[in-house]
Amino acid sequence: MNQRTLSHSGVLGMGIRKEYRGMGLGRRLIQATIEDAESKGLERIELWVFENNQNAISLYLKNGFKVEGKMEKHLKIGGVYHGSLNMARVR
Fold first, then answer.
1. Phi, psi of 31 (to 5 degrees)
2. Strand (E) or helix (H) holding 14
3. Do residues 84 and 47 touch, judged by C-beta distance below 8 A?
4. Which CATH number fits the domain that encloses residue 13?
5. How many helices (H) and strands (E) does the chain have?
6. 37 and which of 22, 32, 42, 63 could share a cystine (Cβ 3.0–4.6 Å)?
7. CA dihedral of 57, 61, 64, 69, whole degrees rounded to 10
8. Residue 75 · residue 84 · CB < 8 Å
9. Domain around 12
10. pTM score
11. How many domains does the chain have?
């Protein structure tokens, strides 16, 4: 794949430290990211999220992301496997 093949698409990665959760920072970050991505002409923003992170999944759904798939045993942290969801916002 060359660079032009994915030039319309971006990958989002973000996290909020525990002591700052529930303050609306995630909402502001995701909205700023969407605005910036669209201003640059991106048509697709994709991400992975832990399948049990209901707060993050809810935030992404509220901001136009949709679940596109599930990956079992996607991540292994401290010897424990975690599944994740593929999500994307396409305009």
1. -65, -40
2. none
3. no
4. 3.40.630.30
5. 2, 4
6. 42
7. 60
8. yes
9. 3-90
10. 0.87
11. 1
